[in-house]
Amino acid sequence: MSAPPTPEDVGAMYDALTDLLSQALGDNIHAGYWQDAQDTSNVAQAADRLTGLVGQRLRAGAGQHVLDVGCGSGRPAVRIAAASGSRVTGITVSGHQLSLARARPETSAADGMLEFRQADAMQLPFPDASFDAAYAIESLLHMSDQRTALAHLARVLRPGGRLVVADLCLSAVPHGADADAVAAASQVFQVSSIASPDEYRTLLEEAGFKVEECSDIAPHVRRTYAVVARTMRQAGESIGGELAVQLDGAAASVERFGTLDCIGYALVTAVRP
User: Fewer CB near the last or first residue (10 Å), C or N of the chain?
Assistant: First the structure.
């Protein structure tokens, strides 16, 4: 069994893949949410809808401070700050993502309402009770010590602060070829572990949170994997050579991963008492 990825490993992966993922996902780096099979939303609209679902559950308002754990290139933070009137601080382990987030015109125009820093969620560099709310969209799965990360989040949230997690989950334990497919995709994207909904609930409760909601929304996000796989193949075809072969292999892993019944997508809301 290989060692779990370090923050440096995850940062290097996102340094390499952020531009491609952003191209695939409409300036986002997380899954989209489609209402049903008839929903004709494009991937950017669907990904923004997922951001909106997270933002609604935060219940943040003007004058409050929100932490974005794994901010990507900054689009979710921009949207949540604009919708809520709150101040958002985003952190990432990727230097390239940090540069992209800071270079957004919305960041410079936000008059201090948006800030982005390079930081590790397992060692949050913020004082106790610094934030009114926090969210983590597809970032916990990269962390080798999710317990420590959640303990830090509980520490930096004020009493009554809300935490929203949107992330992959396991709806069943994979076996055989399915387990191999999960391992292959995890290697591509530097995934440390994928928890089940019950494990998310337990981890949050152990960190001192009270869980209000824990839903598996996998049917609404499943289209995302095919979109990412298609963009990887198109990028490989335009580049050619050995990189094209690598991207085609990665695309096959993502595509197969997206068909697995054992792969869910957790939307979790918790409160720090």
Answer: N
Who contacts 224 (Cβ-Cβ below 8 Å, separation ≥6)?
25, 31, 32, 43, 46, 47, 258
Q: Are strands 114-118 and 87-92 parallel, antiparallel or unpaired?
A: parallel
Chain CA centroid to CA 154, Å: 18
* Tens-digit pLDDT profile for residues 196-253: 999 999 999 999 999 999 999 999 999 999 999 988 888 887 777 777 788 888 889 8
pLDDT, tens digit, 9 for 90 and up, residues 162-189: 999 999 999 999 999 999 999 999 998 9
**Distance set, CA 265 to CA 76, 88, 116, 268 (Å):** 18, 24, 26, 10
pTM (global) more than 0.90:
yes
Give the pairing type, strands 263-271 and 210-216.
Answer: antiparallel
Whether residue 168 contacts residue 197, with contact meaning beta carbons closer than 8 Å, is answered with no
Amino acid in position 215: S
